[in-house]
User: Fold these one by one.
Assistant:
Number 1:
Amino acid sequence: MTPTTLPQIDLLRFSTAGSVDDGKSTLIGRLLYDSKAIFADQLEAVERASASRGDEEIDLALLTDGLRAEREQKITIDVAYRYFATPKRKFIIADTPGHIQYTRNMVTGASTAELAIILIDARKGVLTQSRRHGFLATLLRIPHLVVAVNKMDLVDYAQNVYTEIVRDYTAFTQKLNAQDVTFIPISALRGDNIVEKSGHMPWYDGPTLLHHLENVNVGASLNNIDFRYPVQYVLRPNQQFRGYAGQVASGRIAVGEAVVALPSGLQSRVKAIVTADGERDWANVGDSVVLTLTDEIDISRGDMLVRVNNLPEKSNRLDATLCWMSEEPLKRRGQYWVQHTTRLVSGFVAELNYRIDVDTMHREATDTLRLNEIGRVQLVTTQPLYYDRYALNRATGSFILIDPATNNTVAAGMIRGESQDVGRLLEGEVEATPVRPKSSNVIWEQHGITLAQREEKNGHKAAVLWFTGLSGSGKSTIARKLEQHLFAAGIHTMYLDGDNLRHGLNGDLGFSSADRQENIRRAAELAKLSFAHGNVTLACFISPFTADRRFARQLIPDGRFLEIYVKCDLEVVKRRDPKGLYAKALAGKIPDFTGISSPYEEPVNAELVVETDIYSVDDIIAQIMALLRQRGIVP
Amino acid sequence: MLSNHLRILESEAIYVLREVAAQFERPLLLFSGGKDSILLSHLARKAFYPAPIPFPFLHIDTGHNFPETLTFRDELIARLGVRLIVRYVQDSIDQGRVVEETGPYASRNALQTVTLLDALAELKADAAIGGARRDEEKARAKERFFSHRDEFGQWDPKNQRPELWNLYNGRKKANEHFRVFPISNWTELDVWQYIQAERIPLPSLYFSHEREVINRDGTWLAASEVVRPLPGETIRRKTVRFRTIGDMTCTGAVESVARTIEEIVNEVATARVTERGTRADDKRSEAAMEDRKKAGYF
């Protein structure tokens, strides 16, 4: 193919992390060298430098270790960007140092990456640092991880060495719930499985590193759904033209669509999408354009245009994760500039919840954050921010803190949501008004045999255990195991979940909001019948809306409906993604997906909250059994 | 029609240019007449369309320009309708701010740093937009989009601000300034492919032509008033073109028959020497570029 006719060549930004001697620079040198991105004069310079240091072979690492200080110390000390291209893709590598004092650089490199390569030395196995790299990559929500098990040549290309590392690291990434992890055994020095398939490892049948880089899905970190347009700059070349220059941070917009300007709340429509190459009908995430509106409304830099029916969240109290990047530690209640999208507001850290040890992932109490430390904080800003959670939108969920005294960027921040405190949680809704008056009142003696008779014969009470929670939170896993447990104990049970209902009884329903409501209504009615037959009924439904759960509850007598909130952090379930649904939803292929493009209303009056990201299935089953005994359902 | 990767790079550059206009009070664009600064001017026009480019261009004139560069520069400036400011290295020499190098390798390339810093101070510029790219040279691989310079115009590679997501921090103290590099992520091939796709006019020097040249240490320098043959060197007539255009004393030509952008793109895609490989200034020592950057070079 001639380069003059390059078709739709894509761009993949990835980061590389490895410990000092893992051979990261050698790997990058190898990728550049084998993909012919190294020029003769660069090679010559490296040969000169290798020779002057007395090295016998050409040191490929010298291709990437740019600064003199690094060359002297033989370590990489700052993020360096490298470029290479194949006929399919152009690549931008953020080459980040791996040793502990430079966590800040790894976070910097990861912030724009869509894939991270984590290097593990086959001789050393999974080290603390390998875990830290994985943790940071998932914290920054890099969608794809590649674990390159390097120096396979030094372990005689032994398969068992590789599989052991895969097993160890998989156990770890499952805890992190990384979304997409690929393992590749390589030797950067010898070129095994980098560009060409290695003849030394016939037991490995996966892709080479370059093949994987060329084929992995790009754009997974973009939000294609929620239109957010932070205004960068206002263009007024003459009295007739007033245009808002900006880059579409997420989603898409078309001419004629209704928009609202934040913070003013004024509404208008998109009159034109102007570019130097002519007007366009629409603009997509990532496009730099100029929007004009049909109404003259006052908008300036830092304002945000969004769709009328898809608003970001608004708050001046934020729950956030901070990566501290300055020698100067965090000053609690000290003033900082908060740069969020194109907005700059003043703010302070009101509360420091904990620091995360990046090596053990343990949470520790702390009163400050120091260079390279990561912690969870409650941030208060003088004016509200219009944001989305970082998990849903990297562009509107990220911010930096700037020290007003030095003007340095001192922290990278990721918004987890609105600040929560106990007072707020107690204010949640408790009012129970049945939403569907058409539904029957509790009638559970429609058979000749009464429930009381059944219960007496069964030796246990009937109940409905309503498991609610995000897709992938573990509802079915827990309920199925619990059912086995109950069954073994001679308890009569019935198991209902979204899948077994939708395949039959509810096969006529789709996923529109009316159909979802109907799905839950039928499930609740079915649970009621099962209850009336004396069963301990296990009902597993995402059931994201308080109103629907309330409906199910009011079909069952007091004390017999136990709402169990299966709680798991959205970030974790997105990484687990057992059915691949989050990936599809994030790619915009599933509309109205709970947690992504449709809200999940957290229960405020659940009988039990079980946290699957913290406790094991067995622990949780013990918690539920304790509840059942306490309520007198089972002996 | 731009390919995906060029659209992404273009959008990123436009975003950065707009951030400069929004965050700084007195930015200017460093214009050398080379293809990267011509590309920058093209992107700046797009970034602010339909409004005019909201900052002036600054040209540091070493006095050793190719005549073609100056003609092209003046036409482009007239077409864009921007204000051009020119400051001369000769003036710095006359004022005794710098001492002209002597000898066969004399170049004014290093001297322009002083003229540039003086000009930025005189014009009270708080941001200077440049066309440097990270792929050009190892020291540049770690350069930021928004690169902070202290009050002496110096770069501290060990103490750079982290640059996260696309949040560029342009806050600074009085007397400090920023260098901003909107095309940081472009490679030489990207630049040429974009120039081709967008049909951006370039000075004739970039295209193959016949010229009198002198081979000095493996580099073909254009024979001129300022580059005369040393003993043992001869003037030869060759079919060449330039991959970069800078000071005549240190910009080497490559032998090439590429007469069109298409032919250049093909040539670049298969080239085995970097474009700076034709620049004598980088060969002085292995860390030459890093030393110049620390001092405030472009």
Number 2:
Amino acid sequence: MARRGPGALPGFGLALGWTLTWLSLIVLVPLATLVWKSTDLGWARFWALATSKRALASYQLTFGTALAAALVNLLLGTVVAWVLVRYRFWGKSVVDALVDIPFALPTAVSGLAITAALAPRGWIGSLLADHGVRVVYTRYGITIALIFTGLPFVVRSVQPLLQQLEPELEEAATMLGASRWQTVTRVVLPAIAPAALTGFALALARGIGEYGSVVFIAGNRPMSTEITPLLIMTRLENYDYAGATALALVMLVVSFALLFGINLLQAWSRRRGAAA
Amino acid sequence: MAGAAPSRLVGGAAARPPSAPTEPPWVRRLLIAVALGFLGLFVVVPIAVVIDQALSQGLGVYRRAVTDPAARDAIALTLKVAAIAVPLNLVFGVAAAWAIAHFRFRGRALLLTLIDLPFAVSPVISGMVFVLLFGAHGLLGPTLREHWPGLTIIFGLPGIVLATVFVTFPFVARELIPVMEAQGAEEEEAARVLGASGWQMFWWVTLPKIRWGLLYGVILCNARAMGEFGAVSVVSGHIRGRTNTVPLHVEILYNEYNYAAAFAVASLLLVLAFVTLAAKRLVEHRARVVDAAPLDAAPLDPDAPAARLVPTEASP
């Protein structure tokens, strides 16, 4: 099955064999255990556990805040990518490096730092408190933490595509009489849309599963500021494995659906990239 | 899903000519201000807060917090976990990239998606699956305890390593696949034709070719391995001095209202993040320099691969 005929490159059997073994041991068997354990519950019990009032409230909070954060990142991440690719300004390479901080900083540290900044006596929290606004232990605080963790996705997805975009395309539009606004909205934005949406979906998927950066700022009150990953954690700590399994399966299905969507988007994005 | 963004090692940028159409100056300034404001508020402020809080009680408290026996144990455990998990995923990453980049086989696309799975799964679930497998009431837990009574997986080092390997699973493979695909395999094929064995080819041709991509993947993998919180939190049991990694130690200190100490230990992880980013930049820079080097640009030179097969005869 080798690309250049059999025997040209060695090691296919060993490499694929090791890949499949390790993948099965570390990823597939453990995830299959989760699915298998939930079939143990039976449909009625699973449904009751997965749609309890507290679970539904946690889904609504988790998906709502992750969606809001991903939308903010879609908009502002595209602006950041645009500015980093198109404009020259002082300190640009430092700014470019800053974009990676949310990937590099452990989630527990970012969670603590954001909570401390937004606490009523913190740097930003005290300014907000002057206006009677409080964000820690609310869904707005959770959204802010998720904006932080998802920040690099849209920027890093859009940046390479924007760099590869042929300047001739925009020059042609300009010469044909399009205004700058028309060129950007009708030529540039459609070209980077698949990449921006990929980044959006990645940020959304990350936000839904996020735990470390959210727990400190969430307040974790059941029915109001308790995200699904935390509810799973609580169930596990109480040895309620059935409850944890049902919730985890719901999250797993959503994650897989998103991963599938991201793969489709990336394929679309690559075709766009090749066509541009 | 950290690191799932596209690799930055492959694909160059086309320089824009100065004549290219652009926006009026006020629009440019506004967009730059929006971007800088956004990053300042969401990235710079949290970094500054960590430093400020860590030093808020003075250097003495800082020093005591990071040299406290529990902190030292946590640092030692974190280093140990990374030292086991990263090499495991390194070997897997090279094997997976070799198979996926250089061969076409049925199920290749599916395999790529499966490798990405750990990025899509919530860290809490990543830890939980190992509790379901090896925990006291898990699938294999009772059997294991019967045969190896002394073995602790959950609430012990093996569980933490397993959870860490799971969450860092895709990093090396994902960085290497595009690098290997872009480089092709002409040099490897030449080495084979010239009589190199499979392993000789791998050590003297492939490994030097992919070294920057490999290092890049290892850096990202290591950062996540040392910083993982959610997955490790589920499997560790938070036993001080035994199963407490640095991020978990930070959480414990914070929950004890020991804020200055929590941020002092957290600042160590901030340093890790900075070192990671600096190393990443360096590797990106090196990879670009290597890409531009004539040695790699001339794979058809029949002497080049042979010269590198025998390192002592390699030209300077």
